[in-house]
Amino acid sequence: MTVRDRQPRAAGRLLALAAVLTLAACAAPRPGEQFNDPYEARNRAVHEFNKSVDSAVFGGGAGKDEPSSIPKPLTNMASNFAANLGEPGSFLNHMLQGKPVPAAQNVLRFSVNTVAGVGGLFDAASAIGLPPATTDFGATLHTWGAPEGAYIEAPILGPTTERDLAGTVVDIFIDPVNHALDWPDVGRVNAARLVGKAAQRLRFSATANSILYDSADSYAQARLLYLQNRHFELGIEEDQPDPFEDPNAN
Amino acid sequence: MPTDLTRRSFAALAASALVAATLARPAAALTVDQAKALVDTVTGEINKVINSGASSEAMYAAFQDIFTRYADVNYIALSALGPAGRTATPAQKAAFTKAFSRYLAVKYGKRFREFVGGQIEVTGAKPVKTFFEVQSVAKLQGQAPFDVRFQVFEKDGKQRFFNIVIEGVNMLSSERAEIGALLDKNGGNIDAMIAQLKG
Lengths: 250, 199
Prior knowledge:
The complex is a heterodimer of chains A (250) and B (199).
Chain A: H1 6-22, H2 40-58, H3 72-96, H4 100-115, H5 124-127, H6 137-143, E1 151-154, E2 158-161, H7 162-174, H8 176-180, H9 185-203, H10 205-214, H11 218-234
Antiparallel strand pairs in A: 1-2
Chain B: H1 2-50, H2 56-70, H3 73-81, H4 90-113, E1 119-128, E2 131-139, E3 146-155, E4 158-166, E5 169-170, H5 171-185, H6 190-198
Antiparallel strand pairs in B: 1-2, 2-3, 3-4, 4-5
Helix pairs in contact in B: 1-2, 2-4, 3-4, 3-5, 4-6, 5-6
């Protein structure tokens, strides 16, 4: 490695550090509101933009909630391949979170799927009882005690939070696969990740279309879905309201 | 000796706690088991429908039937309608509940249809506040299994489920947001909202 290509990586690390420090300035929730969404107006504008991109790329629209016509094995392979490339990143984050057991699971899954899963096209590990254990730097920040911050709908990227957006940026720079490879392989790997994302979108096209195009307020539905699902992933217990205390239904 | 006394009273306390726990357990266990049995039946019927190869329309009708028999659709509908229900007439409430029941069956029926070739398996149950949460796993072909929870309560002497939580996403809060938005879109007019819900 020459000194010249060391410099961008050092810059990357600085940027990652800056992203973490920005979290200290995370917006705090306003009392009495269901969601911490102070940027709602701007988020809604981005949501409309994201919807127009989505329908241009995936041809979605109202009432198109039938399963995708692209064969499932194909979309499964593309998303498996991308998921396999994510194992080293999950391993690193599990280690940063002090969780060696799922970290070991990432190592095993990566080995099994790369070898027996034909370079990651098949999830052979799940078949032998090694289910996915994905994590990211946003989750690492959560275990380190960083607050979630405000809800954000980012262009193209979609629903996230201040903490998860910072995590996504950091993940790009600390990703072991990106570090192990040089150009143009890094480009190829990240193109494969992008294809994997698109495959995921197609794999759940019926559900995604129904939320984006058949909801009365798709922004509100996407926000609720992201935050509740993310809390579930992070192991944050949502307060379950007492059904007998609902004043409207008893 | 004070030590003896403490030890004896501790033993007595432990014994009475044990008795209380033993006495309390059968009743609670029975209810957890009942909740689990209910969801076992529900998932069994859902599995049968999704793997029946029936037409979409027949599946939606079957799901609506499952909801009617095992879910408290009335509770779910009124909870989704929220504060607007307080000013609604009984006729409006009835019309809304009817339209909502069909809407719910089609919406969730479509999602369940994506489980074709899969199985939902009940894995456990636990009490939460005044209800029970029954955990299950949806196992789909070529996909990582995902978490589906049914929340069951006993109301008017009947055990029924009133909420489904899929990978943390709560049906009741999602429908409350959706019906609220639909009502806003129709300027707060319940009749217009019901007409739109019918599609």
